[in-house]
Amino acid sequence: MSRAKCIMVQGTMSGAGKSVLCAGLCRIFRQDGYTVAPFKSQNMALNSYVTADGLEMGRAQVMQAAAAGLEPDVRMNPVLLKPSSDTGSQVIVNGEIRGQMTAREYFRYKRQLLPEILAAYDSLASQYDIVVIEGAGSPAEINLRAEDIVNMGLAEQVNAPVLLAGDIDRGGVFAQLYGTVALLQPEERRRIRGLLINKFRGDPEILRPGLRELKERAGIPVLGVVPYLAVDLEDEDSLSPRLAQKDSRSPVDIAVIHLPRISNFTDFAPLESHPALGVRYVGRTEELRHPDLVILPGTKSTTADLIWLRESGLEAAILKLAAVGTPVLGICGGYQMLGEVLEDPDGVEGTLRRIKGMGLLPCSTVFAPEKIRTRVRAETTGGPLGGAALDGYEIHMGLTQVRGEPFCRLESGLEDGCRQGNVLGTYLHGLFDSGALTDRLARWLCGRKGIDPGSAAPELYRDYQARQYDLLAEGLRNAIDMEQIYRILKEGGGGK
């Protein structure tokens, strides 16, 4: 059986652009006629996705799979950590919950996951021509070296050549790259076949003297200076710059509440790409102002974020807006908050057993230990958004009893969510991806303001995404030495 060639992108720090570089390589290899799959052994993020077979994985590899022209597959991200506090995470292995662990507990446990990680990788490697592997954080975190399963530890196991990327936008990129290389073991340094400088703004010629000296000092060639590319791709975690967006210059103003434990904010990417809709993220009462729509997004900790919403004054501000007719939409945890009461008899979310909801929807939620994960097709049931076809997924712990009109009706015949007047709630993530609900929402909100929605016809989101991946691939081809990348692929981790 043939085995895929592989290449790994590591970074000098979190947020160095590894995910985007991997997506770009996936797109380039696909354009060049190869079958290619992304892989990241361990992801830490609150943005997750449910695959067609009901398993949970990180959104970064979902984005990379789309760039490669593939359906997301949990083998691409066998371990997902979803932080639930400053010191602990829910541990998901091969799409299923393995348990809740503190950082110390997981550090002792994670080495046991290596056989499952390698089994997932080997399965992909037997099916595709190329596997593009993403590292995590930095390989220079020398306190974690002994139990590493995601950077050099994994590269050694699968014999992957490594590209090391530094983020010049944060400053000190030469120190980032040289310092990272210097802290590695000799055998790890030999595995790095090329350096990349990412997110550069300006004339790359001014970097030439530094690039030469960096190569002399590190003994590793710089294979490209990647410019700050104007592409719109989904982000996986709270480092996303889109969460800092505070102003909207579009005709319709949508305020998404930036909850402390916000999750799956990728739900709103289709709204952000619509020419008539402006999305901004609000974390303080004075930022809320008078939007045309308020969205309460998903959250990893509904009860804790509801308490924060209450204490911050945002709950009272949202209630005032709803009372004068401003539409309010809650998704997943946000939907649960909009109800009358939330009960937690098993302590799933903590020690608080019961808390009053916002009271905007006639429904109540009871949390349960079992996580619901499923992909669904549905259609909205009525009102100004009625008749829109949806293709989404559910990830939540808890069941909600509704004493009112449902938001949508599932293909199975079951109902989801609740709507009452200008307030709507649903468990469905990805509800805007198909485009139908985005179009209905834009027409409704534009109509409320007397704006002609036809003057701002949207591009289908899947077409918009495909265009972004092609722009990324074009920008990356122009910036890096692809001939050398293919040579590295051919030679493998051992080099010449």
Features:
6-stranded mixed beta sheet; Rossmann fold; 2 domains; 28 strands; alpha/beta; 496 residues; 6-stranded parallel beta sheet
Structural notes for this entry:
The protein has two domains: 5-233 and 466-491, Rossmann fold; 252-450, Rossmann fold, CATH 3.40.50.880. It is globular. It starts with a strand and ends in a 5-residue tail after the last helix. Helix 1 (18-31) packs parallel to helix 2 and helix 1 (18-31) crosses helix 15 (461-479). The protein has a six-stranded parallel beta sheet, sandwiched between helices. Strands 15-13-16-18-28-27 form a six-stranded mixed beta sheet. It is of the alpha/beta class and 496 residues long. The model has no long low-confidence stretch (mean pLDDT 93).
Read across the widest sheet, the strand sequence of neighbours is: 2-9-1-10-11-12
How would a crystallographer describe the biggest sheet? 6 strands, parallel
- Would you identify the regions where 5 or more consecutive residues have pLDDT less than 50? none
- CATH class (first level) name of the largest domain: Alpha Beta
Remind me, CATH topology of the largest domain?
Rossmann fold
**Residue share in β-strands:** 25-35%
Cα distance spanning the termini: 24 Å
Per DSSP, the total helix count is: 16
Provide the structure class.
Answer: alpha/beta
> What is the CATH superfamily of the largest domain?
P-loop containing nucleotide triphosphate hydrolases
